[in-house]
C-alpha cells in the first residue's frame, strides 16, 4: 500500500515534474521521477483539489496552463489527463497570475511572471523575453487547436531569436498538423542545423519523410535519432513502421543525409536491420525491446509489443495461413497489456483492446471478443466521465470511435433499435463536428422523431452502421414506431457472418481499383475479352452484384415496399441513403432499381439543417476550369465540358487555367452565385481529413479548412467534376467519412454532385454533364435532374446519340471551336458503324453512369 505524502510533498513533487517537462523530459524520465507515485490515488486526489483552487481564481497563468496540458503528452497516465483538463480550463480564463500559481511555479524570468500578451507589449523586455513570450503564445494556440496561429507566433519568436531551436521544432509540428509537410521539413532541418543532438527533431523529420513516401531517408533519420538516444521507443516504433512500408534497403540514403547534416554523427551501420517489409518491421521492434526493458520503460515496452502484434495482423491479412499470424498478434497484444494498464496508461490500454478485438473477431473468437468489448466500454466510459473539458471529451470520442460504434451493437443486441439509431447518429455528428468545427462547444444530434421527419409516405431512409464486428442496417419509414433493422445474411453453415464478408469485398475492390487507376480504360467491348478480363472496370457489374447480396438489398426492398393486398400503402419512390465509413466510397444507389430517386447525406442532422430549394432560380453559375496543378495531368475533357456548360448558361462567370488562384477563387465564391462548377483535380487526406482539397493553380489549393471560412448559403448546387472528389481514399475508414462533399453541405450548400471514380477523356462524362445541366435549365431540381441523366445515359442508343449530337451542333454558335470538333468526330464514328450496331447502348455499363452521386437536401415531399 502506498504511503500518503503531505500536501507540501505532493506540491514539491509536482513542481519538479513541471520543471522537468518544460526542459524536455520524455516518458521514461517522467516515469523515473514519479515511480510508483504515477498511480498514487492520493497524488491524483491532491492534483484534483489543486485544480479546483486554480479554477476559482479570476485569472490564470497561461504558461502554467500550457505546461499542464503538455503533461498528457509525455506518458503520465491518468495524472497527465487530470493535469491537461485543468490546463485547458485555465486557458479560457483571462491571462494573469495568482498566489496559488506562484506557490507551485517559481519565477525565474519575466515571461514566466506575465502573460504572453503583456510580455510582447512590454518595451522594457529583452529580445530573449519577447521571443519566449511569442513561443509561449504559440504553445497555447497549439493546445487550443489553432495551428496556423501557432505558426505565426513561432515565426515572431524566430524573427527575434533565429537560433530558437524549440520554436523551430514546434513550428514544424504545427505545420505537420496543417498538412504542410514540405514546410514542416524545413523547420525540422533548421532545428538539426542549430542543435544536431536534438533527437526529437531527427525523429519527426523522419516521420514527415515517411508521410511523403520517402521511406529510406526517414529510416536514416530514425537511425540518427536512435544513435543519440537508444532507448527512445518512439523512434524505434517509427523506424519499424517505415521499414514495413519500404521495399528495399538503400544505403545511399544515410550518406545523403549525412551530407545534408554534416554536424550530426555518422550512422553506424547495423547489418541486422537492413531488411524491409514485414520482416524489417519486426526486426526494428524487437531491437527496440532490447533498449526499452519492461521494468524501466513500461510504456515503450508495451507499445513495441503492440506494434509487433499489429505487424503480424497486417501480414496475416494477405496470407492463406492468416490464423497463424493472427494468433501471434493475440499473444503480442496480451504482452502489451501487461504494462499498458487502464490505471497507468488508459488511452494506450484502449488502443490495444481495439486491436485485440479486431483480431479475435477475425479468428471467430466472438465470446472472448465480446468480453474485451465490454471491458473496453467500461474503461472508455470511465475515462470519458473523468473529463470535464468538452474539447477533451470530443478528442477521446474521436480517437476511440470503435467503442462508440460497439455501443450501437450492444443496444441492438439488447433490443433497443431507437437508442441504437440515435447513438449511431450522435457518433456521426460528433466526428463531423470534430473535423469540420472542432472549436464548436456543442454538437447537435437529432432524436428518432426528428430523423423520421426527413421521411414521408413516399420517402424512406436507409441508414448503415459499421462497427469492428457488425453491419447494421436501419430503415426509417414515415409513421413507423421503430426503425426496422435488417438481419445480416447467414453463411452456408448457418452462422452469422458479421462484417468480414464486407471487409473481404472491400479488399478486392481496392486492389482491382488501384490497378485501374494505373491504366484507366473503359470496359472491354468484345465478349471474349470480357470473359477473360479481371480488371476492375470489367468486373464492376459483378462486384456490385456481390455487394448487393452482402448488404441484403433484396431484404431492404421487401421492407421498403412490402406487398399487401389487405393494407395497401403508398409506394416508396424516394430514398435517402446515409452510409457509414467505407460505404461512402461505393455507388450504393446503383444497387437499387432506377425507379427510385436517390440522394445521399453524411448524417441525418445535416439533412435537417439543409434547405431544399427545389428549382434553381436564378441559375448563376461560377465555373472554375482545369487549373494546372503541379504533378497533375491535364484534363482535356474538362475543357470541352466547361465550354458546353458555358453555352447553356451565357451568364456564367468562368475562371480558367492559371487564373484559378486561391485568392481569385475564394473571392469569387463569396459572390452571389447559385451554382459552383469545378472541373479539376481533388485530393483526400486520410490522415488529416480537414486538409483534403480542390487543387488550384500550381501549388494553390482550397482545403476543407478554407471552405469552412466561406459563406455558401446562396449556392443551390456545387458540382465537383472530372476527379474523385467524392471518394475518400483506399485506406480503411475506421471512423467516418469527412471529405470535400461533407464540407460543402455543412456550409449550407443544398446539393453537391460528385464523382466516385475517374472516367478520363470519355465522351460519356461530357454527355452526362450536358444533359444534367439541360434538365436544370428546364426547371428540374438537382436530385431529379441526376436521376434523369443517369437513366437517359444508360438507355441511350447510338442512333439516339447521333440525333442528339445533331441537335446540339445546330444550337452552337458558328465561332464555337471547342465542342464542335468533338461532336463532328463522334458523329463520324457512328456513321462508320455497321447499321446493326446503331441500336446498341454504348453506356449501359455502370462504369459510365454509376460514378455520379448527389449529396444534400432530400427530395421535396408532395
Could you explain the architecture of this structure?
The strands form three sheets. Strands 7-6-8-12-13-14 form a six-stranded mixed sheet, sandwiched between helices. It is α/β, with parallel strands linked by helices and 862 residues long. The radius of gyration is 29 Å and the shape is globular. Strand 2 (471-476) and strand 3 form a beta hairpin. 55% of the residues lie in helices and 7% in strands.
Question: Strand-residue fraction?
Answer: 5-15%
Number of strands: 14
Q: Could you tell me the mean pLDDT? A: 83
Count the DSSP helices.
39
Gap between N and C termini, in Å?
Answer: 71 Å
The proportion of residues forming helix, as a percent range, comes to: 40-55%
Descriptors for this entry?
about 850 residues; alpha/beta; 5-stranded mixed sheet; 14 strands; globular
What is the strand and helix layout of this fold?
Blueprint: H1 7-22, H2 27-34, H3 41-56, H4 62-71, H5 77-91, H6 99-104, H7 110-113, H8 116-121, H9 127-143, H10 147-160, H11 165-177, H12 181-194, H13 199-211, H14 215-228, H15 233-245, H16 252-260, H17 277-291, H18 298-316, H19 322-339, H20 346-362, H21 366-385, H22 390-399, H23 401-413, H24 417-436, H25 448-452, E1 459-466, E2 471-476, E3 484-486, H26 500-518, H27 527-532, H28 536-550, H29 553-560, E4 574-578, E5 597-600, H30 604-609, E6 621-625, H31 636-648, E7 653-656, H32 662-669, E8 675-679, E9 682-683, E10 693-695, E11 701-703, H33 704-707, E12 717-721, H34 740-746, E13 751-755, H35 763-777, H36 782-795, H37 798-811, H38 819-831, H39 846-849, E14 852-856
Parallel strand pairs: 1-4, 4-5, 6-7, 6-8, 8-12, 12-13
Antiparallel strand pairs: 1-2, 2-3, 9-10, 10-11, 13-14
Helix pairs in contact: 1-2, 3-5, 4-5, 4-9, 9-10, 9-11, 10-11, 11-12, 12-13, 13-14, 13-15, 14-15, 14-16, 15-17, 15-18, 17-18, 18-19, 18-20, 19-20, 20-21, 21-23, 22-24, 23-24, 26-28, 31-35, 35-36, 37-38
Amino acid at each position: 500500500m502506498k504511503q500518503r505524502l503531505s500536501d507540501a510533498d505532493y506540491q514539491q513533487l509536482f513542481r519538479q515534474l513541471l520543471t522537468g517537462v518544460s526542459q524536455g523530459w520524455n516518458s521514461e524520465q517522467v516515469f523515473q521521477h514519479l515511480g510508483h507515485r504515477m498511480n498514487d490515488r492520493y497524488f491524483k486526489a491532491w492534483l484534483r483539489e489543486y485544480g479546483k483552487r486554480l479554477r476559482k481564481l479570476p485569472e490564470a497563468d497561461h504558461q502554467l496552463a500550457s505546461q499542464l496540458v503538455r503533461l498528457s503528452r509525455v506518458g503520465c497516465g491518468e495524472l497527465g489527463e487530470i493535469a491537461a483538463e485543468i490546463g485547458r480550463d485555465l486557458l479560457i480564463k483571462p491571462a494573469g497570475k495568482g498566489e496559488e500559481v506562484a506557490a507551485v511555479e517559481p519565477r525565474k524570468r519575466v515571461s514566466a511572471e506575465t502573460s504572453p500578451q503583456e510580455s510582447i507589449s512590454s518595451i522594457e523586455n529583452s529580445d530573449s523575453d519577447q521571443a519566449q513570450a511569442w513561443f509561449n503564445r504559440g504553445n497555447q494556440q497549439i493546445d487550443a487547436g489553432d495551428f496556423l496561429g501557432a505558426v505565426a507566433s513561432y515565426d515572431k519568436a524566430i524573427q527575434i531569436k533565429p537560433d530558437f531551436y524549440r520554436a523551430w521544432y514546434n513550428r514544424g509540428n504545427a505545420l505537420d498538423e496543417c498538412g504542410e509537410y514540405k514546410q514542416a521539413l524545413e523547420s525540422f532541418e533548421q532545428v538539426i542545423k542549430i542543435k544536431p543532438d536534438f533527437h526529437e527533431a531527427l525523429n519527426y523529420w523522419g516521420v514527415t519523410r515517411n508521410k511523403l513516401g520517402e521511406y529510406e531517408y526517414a529510416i536514416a533519420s530514425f537511425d540518427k535519432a536512435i544513435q543519440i538516444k537508444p532507448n527512445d521507443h518512439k523512434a524505434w516504433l517509427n523506424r519499424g513502421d517505415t521499414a514495413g512500408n519500404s521495399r528495399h534497403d538503400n544505403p545511399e540514403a544515410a550518406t545523403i543525409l549525412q551530407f545534408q547534416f554534416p554536424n550530426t554523427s555518422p550512422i553506424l551501420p547495423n547489418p541486422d536491420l537492413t531488411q524491409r517489409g514485414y520482416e524489417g518491421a519486426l526486426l526494428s521492434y524487437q531491437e527496440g525491446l532490447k533498449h526499452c526493458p519492461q521494468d524501466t520503460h513500461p510504456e515503450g515496452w508495451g507499445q513495441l509489443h503492440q506494434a509487433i502484434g499489429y505487424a503480424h495482423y497486417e501480414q496475416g491479412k494477405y496470407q492463406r495461413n492468416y490464423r497463424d499470424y493472427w494468433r501471434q498478434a493475440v499473444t503480442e497484444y496480451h504482452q502489451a497489456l501487461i504494462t499498458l494498464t487502464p490505471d497507468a496508461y488508459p488511452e494506450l490500454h484502449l488502443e490495444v483492446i481495439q486491436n485485440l478485438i479486431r483480431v479475435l473477431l477475425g479468428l471467430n473468437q466472438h465470446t472472448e471478443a465480446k468480453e474485451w468489448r465490454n471491458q473496453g466500454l467500461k474503461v472508455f466510459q470511465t475515462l470519458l466521465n473523468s473529463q470535464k473539458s468538452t474539447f477533451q471529451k470530443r478528442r477521446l470520442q474521436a480517437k476511440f470511435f470503435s467503442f462508440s460504434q460497439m455501443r450501437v451493437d450492444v443496444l441492438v443486441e439488447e433490443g433497443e433499435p431507437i437508442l441504437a439509431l440515435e447513438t449511431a447518429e450522435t457518433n456521426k455528428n460528433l466526428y463531423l463536428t470534430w473535423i469540420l468545427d472542432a472549436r464548436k462547444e456543442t454538437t447537435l444530434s437529432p432524436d428518432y422523431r426528428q430523423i423520421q421527419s426527413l421521411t414521408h409516405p413516399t420517402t424512406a431512409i436507409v441508414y448503415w452502421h459499421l462497427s469492428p464486428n457488425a453491419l447494421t442496417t436501419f430503415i426509417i419509414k414515415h409513421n413507423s414506431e421503430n426503425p426496422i433493422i435488417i438481419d445480416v445474411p447467414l453463411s452456408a453453415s448457418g452462422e452469422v457472418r458479421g462484417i468480414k464478408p464486407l471487409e473481404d469485398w472491400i479488399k478486392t475492390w481496392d486492389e482491382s481499383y488501384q490497378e485501374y487507376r494505373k491504366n484507366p480504360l473503359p470496359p472491354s467491348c468484345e465478349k471474349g475479352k470480357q470473359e477473360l478480363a479481371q480488371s476492375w472496370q470489367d468486373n464492376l457489374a459483378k462486384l456490385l452484384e456481390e455487394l448487393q447480396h452482402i448488404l441484403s438489398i433484396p431484404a431492404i426492398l421487401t421492407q421498403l415496399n412490402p406487398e399487401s393486398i389487405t393494407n395497401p400503402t403508398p409506394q416508396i419512390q424516394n430514398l435517402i441513403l446515409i452510409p457509414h465509413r467505407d460505404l461512402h466510397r461505393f455507388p450504393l444507389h446503383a444497387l437499387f432499381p432506377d425507379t427510385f430517386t436517390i440522394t445521399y447525406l453524411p448524417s441525418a442532422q445535416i439533412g435537417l439543417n439543409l434547405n431544399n430549394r427545389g428549382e434553381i432560380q436564378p441559375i448563376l453559375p461560377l465555373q472554375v476550369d482545369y487549373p494546372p496543378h503541379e504533378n497533375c495531368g491535364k484534363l482535356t475533357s474538362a475543357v470541352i465540358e466547361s465550354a458546353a456548360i458555358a453555352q447553356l448558361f451565357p451568364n456564367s462567370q468562368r475562371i480558367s487555367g492559371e487564373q484559378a488562384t486561391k485568392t481569385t477563387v475564394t473571392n469569387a465564391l463569396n459572390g452571389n452565385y447559385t451554382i459552383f462548377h469545378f472541373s479539376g483535380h481533388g485530393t483526400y487526406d486520410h490522415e488529416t481529413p480537414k486538409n483534403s482539397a480542390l487543387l488550384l493553380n500550381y501549388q494553390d489549393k482550397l482545403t476543407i479548412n478554407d471552405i469552412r471560412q466561406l459563406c455558401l448559403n446562396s449556392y443551390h448546387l456545387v458540382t465537383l467534376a472530372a476527379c474523385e472528389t467524392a471518394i475518400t481514399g483506399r485506406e480503411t475508414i475506421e471512423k467516418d467519412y469527412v471529405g470535400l462533399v461533407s464540407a460543402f453541405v455543412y456550409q449550407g450548400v443544398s446539393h453537391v454532385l460528385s464523382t466516385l471514380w475517374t472516367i478520363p477523356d470519355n465522351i460519356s462524362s461530357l454527355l452526362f454533364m450536358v444533359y444534367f445541366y439541360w434538365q436544370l435549365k428546364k426547371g428540374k431540381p438537382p436530385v431529379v435532374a441526376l436521376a434523369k441523366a443517369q437513366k437517359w445515359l444508360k438507355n441511350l442508343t447510338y442512333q439516339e446519340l447521333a440525333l442528339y449530337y445533331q441537335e446540339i451542333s445546330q444550337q452552337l454558335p458558328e465561332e464555337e471551336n471547342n465542342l464542335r470538333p468533338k461532336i463532328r468526330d463522334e458523329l463520324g464514328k457512328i456513321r462508320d458503324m455497321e447499321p446493326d450496331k446503331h441500336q446498341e447502348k454504348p453506356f449501359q455499363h455502370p462504369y459510365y453512369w454509376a460514378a455520379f452521386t448527389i449529396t444534400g437536401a432530400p427530395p421535396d415531399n408532395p
